[in-house]
Design a protein that fits this description.
Elements lengths: L7 H21 L2 H4 L5 H6 L2 H15 L2 E11 L4 E9 L6 E10 L2 E9 L1
Antiparallel strand pairs: 1-2, 2-3, 3-4
Amino acid sequence: MNFEEMSDAEILNIANPIMDNLMEASTDIDHERHVKDFTDRMKSIVTKEHLQKVCEKYQSENGFFSGRDPVAVFKRPNSAVVVWKQFFTKAKGEYVAEITLVYKNGKYLIDHAMVF
């Protein structure tokens, strides 16, 4: 899979539903659903306990995820980085949401994710 050969729209059509699930599972603090599209490397980092701690912290400080607008897609031969402008229900201002997509064993997976 060469991400450089894909259009931004094609990559966003893949990334948006994956990110929607990630955000909803994070809001629900549902570890199994949250990591379902993660690579094994990411699954080893985001343990159930880690997710619980991170979600409780951001939810108490920022509220829940609300709107998200795409900003950029960065393409590499073996991955794509998607960046969104992220909003919260409680915190004012604009934040960044980012995932790195890879293609492994016939599936698109997240190999990195961050909201800051």
